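cron nightly-structures :: item 1 of 1
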Amino acid sequence: MANLADLDVETILNLVGMPVQKELVNPRNPKEMAEKVRVTFRPLPKGYDNKTIINFRYKLKEKLTQYGAQVILWNKATEIEPNSLISRIFRIRKVKRNTNAVIDVDRPYSKLRKIMSNLAEKIYLLLRSPDKSVTEIFRASAWADDLTKKHVMDPFNTQVVTLTPLNHVFADNNTPYDEKIKIGLQNIIRTMSEVVIGVSEDRISIINMNLSDSTFYVDQLDEFILNSFIPKIFAPIKPPVLNRFDLGTFDPSESSYAEELTNLGKQLKQTDLFPEGSNFNEKIRRLSHRDVVNKIFEGRTGVSYGFVALAEPPKYEGPKEISRGEWNNLSSLDGINNEAIKKGYNGRWYVKTVIRGKEFYQQVPDIWIVTSRSGCDKTNLDLNRDIVRIGLVKGKHYLQIPTGIDLNRKDIRPSFDTYVILAQSLAAALYSPNLIKNGMPILHFHGYPDPVWFQSFECHVGENNPSMPCGTLEAALLNFSEIYELANNNGTEMKLLCVVESDHGVNILGPNMDYLVTRLREGSSQGHILLGGKYLPYLKEESKPRLRNVQ
């Protein structure tokens, strides 16, 4: 059993309502992740002559093997589907389901293949059905394409990684983030890949649906592979699916927190940290490709770059803290370690906590949060359309949408970062209650502050963690653990906490909304907070106490 700080990983997962896997991996240890990863390299196309990418491909394969990943030969990792007539006719080999990633190079289309691809798309339009699976869509539409994605049996769990020449505009720190996003999205969409790696003689860039712009020098290859690449293929981005939630409704007009959230979004507009999202329907030319993305992202039609959320004050019933004698008389819970979590006579959960050597037993509160829905404009929230309410009650997840909205509407979905939002809020309630006792704003954007921006009673944590993608239980674990460790090591009084997620962005949270807005406006106007990854290396390099001036 892996441990995260002084907390048992399984206990954290039970508290935040995430499924406990048989083999738990410490998300702070990328070598553990590597040993669980299976990858294959698609053979290079005939005549491929980009020596820089060929050399990088060789080194990548060598390093993955060195770190314990299983690198499977193409013929061993693939097979011809016996039940697919097209696969048998065209001898199309499919990557088996237990493979985490297939790594390929960018494959430009010939004129003949473009003609055949257009023909395939016209045939697909005639045969199109909303009930088709991703695999069926590819069978019907991609038989003339050279997309690596069509060679994958399990498109939900096997990621396509494409190696392509480095785009120097994308890798330039002076290129505006909006321009970088256009370039990154174009590459992801054009290659139908989850991860695109740009390669030159001296630099490496990497982008996935987190839409980061991280770059590395070639002498940082080990850091790139361990802390950036392996986490991405170990834990693919997955949006929270609705069947994980108990569904219900709420009336935003009767929620003071929902109204506060709309005002918060408007106040953040002038920071320029929450750019307009991207609509896949506008970016993806082929309908078959839009249908594939629609299936994989459970109806989401685009991506946005951040979220705004407001955690309501935690809800308790009865005493917040009990004695050791009372703890010993509590009941155990099925399937949960009763050394860490127990149930009271009133059905409330209690958890054993150790902070700076002191052991105590506290009630696990109900957590409720109003948050922007996935894909909306965070700085212009529609009270009745753009806000959802998520909850964590005794290890169960809840989702409430505005009254009168059809749950079948595909654009009413919780944020990709839902599990992180819940984990942060519960950890704050348990270990740093002054952060959340009167409610706590949580702001996430795809950029970073310069370390010089931080003042007294403000801190940043998490910058040296592996870059776990959003929507993963590993990201939730890291965020939960960072707040616990901060409280355990430094105290609980702070005005602002910045939880850094490498290759993704930051989460800014604190007890006072006006204070956070003022600080973000100052940082943005002074150039001390920027979208994109310019300041991430500075955060990683800085070695300072985690929290200043805390008694």
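cron nightly-structures :: done
The domain at 28-107+146-234 is CATH 3.40.50 (Rossmann fold).
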